[in-house]
Design a protein that fits this description.
- The structure is a single chain.
- With 122 residues, this protein is of the alpha/beta class.
- The protein has 4 helices and 4 strands.
- The protein has a 4-stranded mixed sheet, covered by helices on one side.
- Helix 2 runs parallel beside helix 3.
- The relative contact order is 0.15.
């Protein structure tokens, strides 16, 4: 009995290249205890993970105010809202400086708009 496997059984099948993910955080800067970020593209449960990590790190370093420009977000789901609500749960301020149509639709659909309401910078 021949137990030798042919190369076609050993070598992995060719797969298409992995999709390229671009960061949803387009820019980030700090001034005092304020973190200002611009987010872009599609923000879902998976792509929001780096955003959540950034916000967790900023909170750990003592930032208490977050200013978000979400004018270039083309799609978002609960992953985006959850990242922003986690920031607010810590008693920190959130200023939604700009929101795309996709963000406004999500906030209206989830009825979270009042929790993420635009606050006056101060």
């Amino acid at each position: 009995m021949n137990t030798t496997a042919s190369p076609s059984h050993i070598l992995p099948k060719k797969h298409s290249p992995a999709p390229r993910f671009t960061s949803v955080v387009a820019s980030c800067r700090t001034e005092g205890n304020t973190l200002t970020i611009a987010v872009q593209g599609e923000i879902d449960h998976f792509t929001a993970a780096p955003l959540s990590a950034l916000l967790t790190s900023a909170a750990a370093f003592g930032h208490t105010c977050l200013v978000v420009d979400a004018s270039r977000v083309t799609f978002c789901d609960s992953g985006f809202v959850n990242a922003l609500l986690a920031w607010r749960r810590g008693g920190r301020r959130l200023v939604l400086a700009a929101a795309s149509a996709a963000v406004r639709r999500l906030l209206a659909a989830t009825r979270c708009g009042h929790l993420l309401a635009k606050e006056a910078r101060g």
